[in-house]
Design brief:
There is one protein chain. This protein is an alpha+beta fold. Helix content is 54%, strand content 19%. It has a six-stranded mixed barrel. Strand 2 (112-127) and strand 3 form a beta hairpin. The relative contact order is 0.17.
Length: 435
């Protein structure tokens, strides 16, 4: 009579126990679907779906946010490197008169694609009663396209107008707007190195002709960087040669490695630095922001995992009679633990899979989704008159996706440990006492 009562109570459990697939998987999958549609089972199923949806939304949000942050970082980095060089070589003396020989040695490296000399210095720009500090870069117009994209960023004029002895200048678009300058106007540069006269030390002033305006898309350069011809820069700053040599390499991600190799192979008392060293503080700040955002958004997944704990605890409480029957049919405590670990892991796996699919879909198509949302809502997230980057960029990186999915699965697995341990401790006699 007792056996017939048990079989009447849950005949599918005894069938699952002796079926070909492992019965833990069969029952764990059935519990995930909340087989019997009682009111309490439906509520548990609803909470399980909420946990799954929470994991999916957390994973999707983390993928999209990191992709957008990677896109912004890549966009700003590319704009910076359109003006900056991948690698710079300086002589400890401050001058590099024999730059052509050094350039011929540097380009022998298989990663180096171009080399050009430059002069760097600081000066004051004066027009009427407006004064502003700027970075002055002396270049050779025919060599500069080998290492930067300034020639292709010209809004007006041409870089080739920088001719030796004519004291012409190319300025950024923000600087031109700030001073109300156009091509053909005059601009005065004041060099910090003064000249000694009978009246004392006087600053050196030189008037330049504006022959071009460029726009790099990075405010720091558009507002505070000017280009003049290399020889004019040497005269302005009283140098006997270029300040250094700028290099462009095939893969900018290998710049630190290439810089180290060049520093070891080139002769002379040279200082070699790469683009990551020139902007170390900015890149460090971006990396810190990404880490903090990763941690904050991971908490969303953690909250969903805690919700999964409550779901499994309620399932264990509801299924105590079934657990007792399984134990009387010969199931071990380890098998009972596996059932609920499988149930929670399936919820985590399905939620993670949905979240990854949704996150990747949004990250890849964000250039279509965001304009659609803007057209529906009637406003721009990044207005063109305020932000230099008017569209949300996205750079989906699969290592980030794998790391996010791994963390979600790990949290889901950890959430199953306590409820499954509690299920394994159920005593059959006590569970069936009032059944």
């Amino acid at each position: 009579m007792a056996n017939s009562g048990l079989e009447k109570k849950s005949p599918e459990l005894s069938l699952a126990l002796f079926s070909n697939p492992p019965f833990e998987w069969t029952i764990g999958l059935r519990y995930t679907r909340a087989g019997r549609r009682s009111a309490r089972n439906s509520f548990i199923s609803f909470i399980s779906l909420i946990s799954m949806a929470g994991i999916a939304l957390g994973v999707a949000a983390l993928i999209v946010v990191l992709s957008v942050m990677n896109g912004f970082q890549k966009e700003v980095r590319d704009r910076m490197l359109s003006v900056l060089s991948h690698v710079e070589i300086f002589d400890s003396s401050g001058n590099l008169p024999d730059w052509a020989m050094l350039a011929s040695e540097a380009v022998k490296h298989p990663e180096v694609r171009g080399a050009a000399p430059f002069v760097d210095g600081q000066a004051m720009v004066v027009r009427d009663d407006v004064v502003r500090g700027v970075m002055v870069r002396g270049i050779l117009p025919d060599q500069e396209p080998k290492v930067s994209a300034v020639a292709s960023q010209m809004l007006r004029g041409n870089l080739s107008e920088l001719r030796a002895g004519e004291f012409n200048i190319v300025i950024g678009s923000a600087l031109a707007r700030g001073f109300g300058l156009r091509v053909g106007d005059k601009l005065t540069l004041i060099a910090p190195q003064g000249q000694l006269t009978p009246a004392g030390v006087l600053p050196r002033l030189k008037q330049f002709n504006v022959v071009g305006i460029f726009e790099a898309g990075h405010y720091e350069f558009d507002s505070a960087l000017v280009f003049i011809q290399l020889e004019d820069a040497q005269r302005l700053f009283r140098l006997s040669g270029p300040s250094g040599l700028r290099l462009k390499i095939a893969d900018m991600q290998r710049a630190p490695e290439v810089a180290a190799e060049l520093g070891a192979s080139l002769k002379g008392d040279l200082v070699v630095r790469d683009w990551s060293q020139q902007n170390r503080s900015w890149f460090a700040a971006v990396q810190t922001e990404k880490r903090m955002m990763f941690i904050i958004l991971t908490l969303i997944i953690a909250v969903a995992a805690f919700n999964l704990v409550s779901t499994l605890v309620m399932t264990v409480t509801e299924k105590q009679a079934d657990i007792a029957i399984l134990r009387t049919l010969g199931a071990s405590p380890t098998s009972i633990m596996k059932i609920f670990i499988i149930q929670g892991a399936l919820v985590g796996l399905i939620g993670t899979a949905i979240g990854v699919s949704l996150g990747v879909l949004v990250a890849v198509n964000i250039d279509v989704i965001v304009p659609f949302i803007e057209s529906v809502l009637g406003f721009q997230f990044l207005p063109r008159d305020i932000y230099l980057i008017s569209a949300l960029p996205s750079d989906l990186r699969w290592p980030d996706v794998g790391r996010i999915a791994g963390i979600a699965l790990l949290l889901a697995f950890l959430a199953t440990l306590y409820p499954s341990w509690r299920a394994a401790r159920v005593r059959p006699a006590e569970a069936l006492r009032y059944e």
